[in-house]
Design a protein that fits this description.
55 residues; mainly alpha; 1 helix; 0% strand; elongated
Length: 55
């Protein structure tokens, strides 16, 4: 039995893709009552206030 090889072509640039352009990422909202989520959100807010907008 011979198996056929399947190839897939992927778009390599935005111009070739039907996907919408990426915009700025929104910060995830912490889950209510989750202490870990609250800490991560607080750390992210502190970092942003100190000029670190990466996280």
């Amino acid at each position: 039995m011979t198996m056929a090889r399947q190839t897939t072509t992927h778009a390599s640039t935005t111009e070739e893709s039907d996907a919408p352009p990426l915009g700025p990422m929104l910060a995830p909202q912490p889950l209510a009552g989750c202490a870990h989520c609250d800490k991560v959100a607080m750390d992210r807010d502190h970092a942003k206030a100190n000029g670190d907008a990466a996280g």
